[in-house]
Amino acid sequence: MGNTLKEIAEKLQASPKKVQLIYAFNGVGKTRLSREFKELIEPTTEGEEETDTKIFYYNAFTEDLFYWDNDLAFDAERKLKIQANGFTTWVIQDQGQDQNIITNFQHYTSDKLTPRFNADSTEVSFSLERGDNTNLDNLKISKGEESNFIWSIFYSLIEQVVDVLNVPEVSDRETDKFNQLQYVFIDDPVTSLDENHLIELAVNLAQLIKSSTSDVKFIITTHNALFYNVLFNELSTKACYMLEKNEDGSFELTEKRGDSNKSFSYHLYLKQTIEQAIEANAIEKYHFMLLRNLYEKTANFLGYPEWKKLLPDDNREAYYHRIIQFTSHSTLSNETVSQPTNPEKQTVRLLLEHLNTKFWKEIETDAYSN
């Protein structure tokens, strides 16, 4: 019998480490763990003062502070609205961080895509330069771009918090809003970035954490092995774990002492996860992402310039476009991909078998653990 998420949260609270880094596959319970941890540190109560805040957390619920006004009557003035909260007002308005937020956002998206805050920082509109000295105004951005924007606000907030709390004398700090802060919990900050930007984000986050001289502790959870590995290599004062869910619904938090390949055989774990889904006829969209990840890492290990070169010769382009359909981030905010059909589920089975029989037999199992 394993632990409940509340018991896992209690273990994290008991750790003396400055940073705790947790890897878990999607669907295991990272976001629920962040909520359990938040309730452990700062139970939800009515009328609580913002100066009493003990934890900041970024997860899927953070995005709930932002919602679209699509101007259904005229379809002309679309705005991303921000639910009233003192901290976005503080970082955007009081601290004048709007330009830093815009800079961070454009760095990870496009310098032609510009957010504009209104006077009281309760809504944002977006414009896109067309390239002919005109703009496309009041644009509704994609979900990935929206996540980037929200992360840019949170990151700017944490930058300010670290700067404030690095002042040792409490009376010398520019605000008392964060004097009680104990934890920053970050769950998968931005999953829509390409590898280069994801690495840069991880490095910047690690540098920010290392610059913190206060007693604030950081907990970071992710399902992205690359993000995990960069943080693992950048941060020294850390504890590393893998969060797993047992068949009975309980959880295990196992300490690990290496990067994703050395400590929990990431590639083999991916393969096992897909195999279990195939056996249970429970293949979903995200299994295509896991399959693509397997092909990418195997191609890299064997020295192939493109992962699609590993696909079966007889129908390579068709298989490639099928995987891309399920794994690429859409540039259209209202574009969705349907659940896999039975033939598409069979494609996952076929491509995993192909990878296993044609390429993995050439690779010793322990090569994935080194």
Condensed summary:
The protein has 370 residues and is of the alpha/beta class.
Features:
Rossmann fold, disordered C terminus, six-stranded mixed sheet, 12 helices, alpha/beta, 11 strands, 2 domains, 370 residues, five-stranded antiparallel sheet
What does this structure look like?
The strands form two sheets. Strands 2-8-9-1-10-11 form a six-stranded mixed sheet, sandwiched between helices. Helix 3 (86-94) crosses helix 5 (143-165), helix 6 (195-211) packs parallel to helix 7 and helix 9 (266-279) runs antiparallel to helix 10. The chain is built from twelve helices and eleven strands. 31% of the residues are buried. Helix content is 43%, strand content 15%. Helix 6 (195-211) links the parallel strand 8 (183-187) and strand 9. With 370 residues, the protein is α/β, with parallel strands linked by helices. The protein folds into two domains: 5-111 and 142-260, Rossmann fold; 265-369, no CATH class. It has helices at 5-14, 30-41, 86-94, 98-108, 143-165, 195-211, 225-234, 260-264, 266-279, 285-302, 316-327, 342-358; strands at residues 19-23, 55-58, 66-69, 79-82, 113-117, 123-129, 135-136, 183-187, 217-222, 238-245, 251-256. Mean pLDDT is 85; it is low at 47-51, 329-337 and 364-370.
